[in-house]
Amino acid sequence: xxxxxxxxxxxxxxxxxxxxxxxxxxxxxxxxxxxxxxxxxxxxxxxxxxxxxxxxxxxxxxxxxxxxxxxxxxxxxxxxxxxxxxxxxxxxxxxxxxxxxxxxxxxxxxxxxxxxxxxxxxxxxxxxxxxxxxxxxxxxxxxxxxxxxxxxxxxxxxxxxxxxxxxxxxxxxxxxxxxxxxxxxxxxxxxxxxxxxxxxxxxxxxxxxxxxxxxxxxxxxxxxxxxxxxxxxxxxxxxxxxxxxxxxxxxxxxxxxxxxxxxxxxxxxxxxxxxxxxxxxxxxxxxxxxxxxxxxxxxxxxxxxxxxxxxxxxxxxxxxxxxxxxxxxxxxxxxxxxxxxxxxxx
Length: 346
What we know:
58% of the residues lie in helices and 12% in strands. It contains 17 helices and nine strands. It has a nine-stranded mixed β-sheet, sandwiched between helices. Helix 9 packs antiparallel against helix 10. The radius of gyration is 23 Å and the shape is globular.
């Protein structure tokens, strides 16, 4: 059954016009939400903890900033945009005591609601608007008058108007100009985690690294392996992003297209789908959530060890050197500036 999709004619800003909206967090999504809400003519306060490095930035952007508990007390609508692993603590200590009847609690990802880490009072509406783009794109496309697609989901509808208000929020972000798909907290959470693990982050990173290692172990130069297995991936992904797999296959050479059909199923064989199924099962039954929650509660040692191992891999060392040759990249500009400064000092 196809998803229900909402557009600009399905909502107005009316449900939010006389309300104060607290955006808790001022990172990638937080800054985009707060600025877009403000520029849509709505009353916004940013909730940050004392000593937050983001406070000065939010104030420089012309936003009003309060302590999280004060923002929660003042707000009619609160959007929680801090990282998943710290949401529960912030909610329990600074937000929950301030959320009374008639208020709305919102999320941009369903993890803590779906896995029971946050259990809101039965007196409030709970909803989600999840833009399907990084925060900087949410902001950029809002300024261009385009907007990014988003998801909408309702967990609790005490007022009977939770969806109406959520869609008003989506309109203030610019998302309704692109389209907002209706989903559930469960579907958003489970598909989001699966996509990150099996394809977008885990799958792609492991595939790149395995290809790089295969070429280097066969005696090829690491630099050549980097270009072929990592650098050129963006060219292919851009084609897929623009027109799907068929457009990518149309755009590459016939040799590359044949290699796609011939080799793809050998690399991503039925065993890979079995592994993906096992990953999905661990997400669905809560095993992954319990593991990740425990990892954070126990100090994140294993997570930090894996992060360091990834950072220290040869592909990162070689990549850093090669990106310094690419001044059109942000990292390339920084690396080139560092190299020039080092030469000037020598």
